[in-house]
Design a protein that fits this description.
Elements: H1 21-27, E1 55-67, E2 72-83, E3 87-93, E4 98-106, E5 111-113, E6 116-120, E7 125-134, E8 137-148, E9 155-163, E10 166-174, E11 195-203, E12 207-210, E13 214-219, E14 224-229, E15 242-245, E16 247-254, E17 257-264, H2 272-289, E18 297-303, E19 312-313, E20 318-322, H3 335-351, E21 359-360, H4 367-384, H5 393-405, H6 420-425, H7 429-446, H8 448-462, E22 466-467, H9 469-480, H10 484-492, E23 497-502, E24 506-508, E25 511-521, E26 535-541, E27 548-552, E28 556-562, E29 567-569, E30 578-581, H11 583-591, H12 598-614, H13 619-628, H14 635-651, H15 656-677, H16 687-702, H17 706-719, H18 724-727, H19 732-744, H20 748-760, H21 764-774, H22 780-790, H23 799-810, H24 812-821, H25 823-827, H26 835-843, H27 849-862, H28 869-887, H29 889-900
Helix pairs in contact: 2-3, 3-4, 4-7, 5-7, 5-12, 7-8, 7-10, 8-9, 11-13, 12-13, 12-14, 14-15, 14-16, 15-16, 16-19, 17-19, 20-21, 21-23, 22-23, 23-24, 23-26, 24-26, 26-27, 26-28, 27-28
């Protein structure tokens, strides 16, 4: 699963989120503590389940007849099951399904029609009862049923979109984590793997897509056809896929596998980049994993619309992706779009091994899917597209994880999951980015070749099966010949961020000797008793180039580093920890900043800013590094400086005088970068320069820099006039950025002009962007108009919640209050499984104390106790933002005054 690039994460199902206490207890029965200090986070000795044990599905023969116009479907399931012990009933998952008939047949003949069927809406289960108990053995359970096709991206759903020929409707499925049960009666848990044979009766003119190639297609003579797909390998229910629509498909071959891209008609040309890159990615993954991709085809399916929950889904052999994550539209797409498409492709294709071929046993170990796919996407992008220099982005991913991990509301990478809701909320920055960062650290510790050997052994040993984290650690230990699992447990079975304090360095005989002390970095618990980690540390002295390594244990270590001079800890930035230096070394690093490798410049900037905001060191130290960053620095380092200044500028929101004072400094620092980068692309410039250009324009626009706003408006107005030269005023790579500045500072007339464009637009990708622009105004009155527009039918059901989210970035209080006042209407426009995440994230950017009470009251009234993780995180973030404004910004003010003096 690939998360959306904006702060819109995973899922929730309010009506059925929390299990009864007895079920929660049963779900965790049999967990024995290992011989370690992690008894509270021990691994399961038996598989977690929320279903009664004793009946196991082996094969599903599934027939679906959708009626897209009526938003309903009929289904027939013939499920081969193994019964382990005599029973008079069978319980499985079912949600919002109506059963017409159910019967069971024994392997030796004989048939029983069900005596009674019970549904439990809270547990999302159905139980079929039989007059005569079933003996141990294999049976065929037959169920005829019907269900509904939704309009949000869960279960079997429809997406409507405009075309020049009129409105079209396409069908897709989205089952992770627990929504297969809304299309088929099933054992809808990852450990219950089975094979699937899907057949569908669909309109003859439309294309049907499944996990496997079409085995046969029969014209039924009445405008419909009967399509049968080949049987899948053993897989979890959440990986099943079905799509139907007015599609077209392009293919290529890679290592004997047919690679395909599927789009709505008319958009296939925009998928060429995705198709070409998929060919190379499959070859790379076949080689890296040492296990060839096992299915005969692999499609990437592009769908119009979007979700508040996810951007793409790794269905085996049929990856679903929203169009913005797969298609390049030459009129609007940017270099950043291209790189994002590539990371989505590489993430979802990595899942074909990590997640599909080998699946976590239960959602506790979700990171085995998502952390590894995130790491693999980064590793592969670095390898196959070195010109993008994406290795530097690893620091940003780590920072994103640490930002969440340093709050009291964090959780371990491997966490206890008791409910559907908790599984939904596990798809977050800890699972993805911290998981990736820990893998990167361990790979650096054991070596890339050793790590790959362990991964290959893990894949071969557990193919088509389910695992827990320790299954992987055993392979790493064996390949490395040392107990890597001890370090891995420290970073995955407990939450938080280690903080390494570097003592005064002493240089003798050409070597630097220093003492390292480990505590814990916390943003909102400065006095908490620190946890303990075994931390692999890599250090060097600036200009020497030789590395020293040590594993810090029991809170302290002594390190001898070759060379003398400024000491850099976490050289190469593979470690997951913060570093605090003694004042003399801090000054020395600032003086040597221009000589550091770009990735270490990024790491030092990130540590210094975060430590300063948390009060672990003076925030002025960060501003000194900003001053020390030369214009010749890597564009990504300059981008980090720009983003950090933009973030600090936002911290002053609501205090116009102080914000203007900081803005003058920030704009003066960014102006030479903008002058150097320019508005016009230069022949042969690095892709990172194009990305920096857009970032600088956007951030200076946020700060209200008059020259940038004026130039954006000039280019926009010129583009509205006829003529080739005028059209070139707003080139595709800058179109979105320029429109963003114009929309942010729009007056009512400009807003109406953009609104007219949105209404007229027929291309979904462009239409989505235009409605986002309407919701991006700094003017509260125009923001209010955007909110009102979001609740009409005009934007479309997937744009409505996105518009409210977009308003919340500039006006969190306004957006949250509006959504709460229109709770029923907003809920109707959100993925049913996203609601417990959606509302708290609207409030997350606030720094107003009264928002805390509002959010807590919302959670108390609307969310089950087990579904409040995002609400708690948002409250913690608001409290921290208030603390930063009160306690940290005065240091910035003092530094600015000193500079002026």
């Amino acid at each position: 699963m690939h998360r959306t690039p904006t702060p819109r994460f995973r899922r929730s199902q309010l009506a059925a989120a929390v299990l009864a206490l007895a079920s929660i207890t049963a779900a965790h029965a049999g967990h024995a503590a290992p011989a370690s200090r992690y008894a509270s986070a021990s691994h399961a000795t038996t598989t977690t389940t929320q279903l009664p044990r004793g009946v196991t599905p082996l094969h599903y023969a599934l027939s679906i007849t959708p009626d897209a116009a009526a938003s309903t479907f009929k289904g027939a399931a013939a499920i081969k099951v193994a019964v382990d012990a005599p029973t008079a009933s069978i319980t499985f998952n079912a949600l919002n399904l109506e059963f017409a008939a159910a019967a069971i047949e024994g392997a030796g003949g004989g048939k029983q029609v069900t005596r009674k069927i019970d549904f439990d809406a809270d547990k999302q289960t159905a139980t079929v009862h039989f007059a005569q108990p079933l003996a141990k053995g294999e049976y065929l359970l037959r169920i005829d049923y019907s269900g509904k096709i939704g309009t949000q991206a869960t279960g079997l759903f429809s997406l409507d979109y405009d075309t020049p020929q009129g409105r079209q409707r396409a069908l897709y499925t989205q089952f992770e984590n627990s929504d297969a049960r809304s299309m088929l009666p099933s054992w809808d848990e990852p450990d219950y793997k089975a094979t699937f044979a899907l057949d569908v009766i669909v309109p003859s003119s439309q294309m049907a897509v499944g996990n496997m190639p079409i085995a046969s297609s029969e014209d039924l003579g009445n405008g419909t056809k009967h399509v049968r797909f080949a049987t899948t390998p053993r897989m979890s229910t959440y990986l099943l896929f079905f799509g139907l629509g007015d599609f077209e498909r392009a293919t290529a071959m890679s290592d004997g596998t047919e690679i395909g891209v599927i789009t709505k008609k008319g958009a296939l040309a925009q998928s060429r980049f995705a198709l070409d890159e998929s060919v190379a990615l499959l070859r790379e993954y076949n080689d890296y994993f040492g296990v060839r991709y096992p299915l005969p085809k692999l499609d990437n399916i592009a769908a119009p619309g979007r979700s508040q929950f996810f951007g793409a889904m790794e269905n085996w052999g049929a990856v679903f992706t929203f169009e913005y994550g797969l298609l390049l539209d030459p009129t609007i797409s940017t270099q950043t779009d291209k790189e994002n498409i590539y990371t989505t492709l590489s993430h979802e294709m990595a899942h074909q091994w990590f997640g599909d071929l080998v699946t976590m046993r239960w959602w506790d170990d979700l990171w085995l899917n998502e952390g590894f796919a995130s790491w693999m996407e980064s590793r592969t992008t670095e390898r196959l597209h070195p010109e993008w220099n994406t290795a530097l982005s690893s620091v940003g991913g780590r920072e994103s994880a640490m930002s969440q991990d340093a709050l009291r509301t964090t959780h371990p990478v491997v966490q206890r999951i008791a409910t559907v809701e908790q599984a939904s909320q596990a798809f977050d920055g800890i699972t993805y980015q911290k998981g990736e960062a820990v893998i990167r650290m361990l790979e650096a510790y054991v070596g890339a070749d050793t790590w790959r050997t362990a991964v290959r052994n893990y894949m071969r040993k557990h193919a088509y099966g389910n695992t827990v984290s320790d299954d992987l650690w055993r392979e790493v230990d064996a390949a490395a010949g040392k107990p890597v699992s001890a370090i891995a447990h420290d970073f995955t079975l407990q939450p938080g961020v280690p903080m390494i304090t570097v003592g005064d360095a002493v240089c003798r005989n050409g070597n630097t000797r220093v003492t390292l002390t480990q505590t814990e970095f916390s943003k909102d618990q400065p006095n908490k008793k620190p946890l303990s980690w075994q931390v692999p540390v890599i250090a060097s002295t600036v200009g020497n180039g030789k590395l020293a390594k040590v594993v810090l244990k029991d809170g302290k270590a002594t390190l001898n580093v070759p060379g003398c001079g400024a000491l850099l800890v976490n050289a190469g930035q593979s470690g997951y920890y913060r570093t605090v230096y003694a004042p003399a070394n801090t000054r020395a690093l600032a003086g040597s900043f221009a000589r550091l490798a770009p990735i270490d410049q990024l790491g030092l900037l990130a540590d210094s800013q975060s430590l300063g905001l948390a009060g672990a060191q003076n925030l002025a130290d960060f501003l000194e590094l900003v001053k020390a960053t030369p214009l010749s620095a890597d564009p990504q380092v300059l981008g980090k400086v720009a983003s950090s200044l933009g973030s600090l500028y936002e911290q002053y929101a609501g205090d116009a005088v102080r914000q203007q004072a900081f803005g003058r400094f920030a704009m003066a620092r960014l102006a030479p970068m903008m002058a150097q980068t320019g508005w016009e692309a230069r022949a042969g410039e690095a892709s990172s320069v194009a990305t920096l250009r857009g970032r600088l324009i956007a951030i200076l626009g946020d700060m209200g820099e008059p020259g940038v706003i004026a130039e954006a408006r000039r280019r926009y107005e010129a583009s509205e006039q006829a003529g080739e030269q005028n059209a070139a005023a707003m080139p595709a790579p800058l179109r979105r950025t320029i429109l963003g500045v114009v929309a942010q500072h729009a007056d009512a007339a400009t807003w109406e002009q953009l609104h007219a464009k949105a209404r007229q637009e027929k291309t979904p990708l462009v239409k989505n962007q235009l409605y986002d622009l309407l919701a991006s105004s700094d003017d509260p009155a125009l923001a209010q108009r955007a909110l009102a527009l979001a609740l009409t039918d005009e934007p479309g059901v997937t744009n409505s919640p996105a518009m409210i989210s977009r308003v919340s970035r500039s006006h969190p209080e306004l957006a949250f209050d509006f959504a709460l006042a229109h709770l029923e209407q907003v809920n109707a426009r959100i993925d049913a499984s996203s609601r417990s995440r959606y509302f708290p994230r609207l409030a997350a950017g606030s720094a107003q104390p009264d928002m805390i009470a509002k959010l807590e009251a919302y959670a108390q009234a609307n969310l089950p106790a087990g579904a409040r993780g995002d609400a708690d995180s948002s409250v913690a973030g608001i409290k921290y933002r208030i603390k930063v404004r009160a306690e940290r910004l005065p240091a910035v003010d003092a530094w600015l005054a000193k500079q002026a003096g």
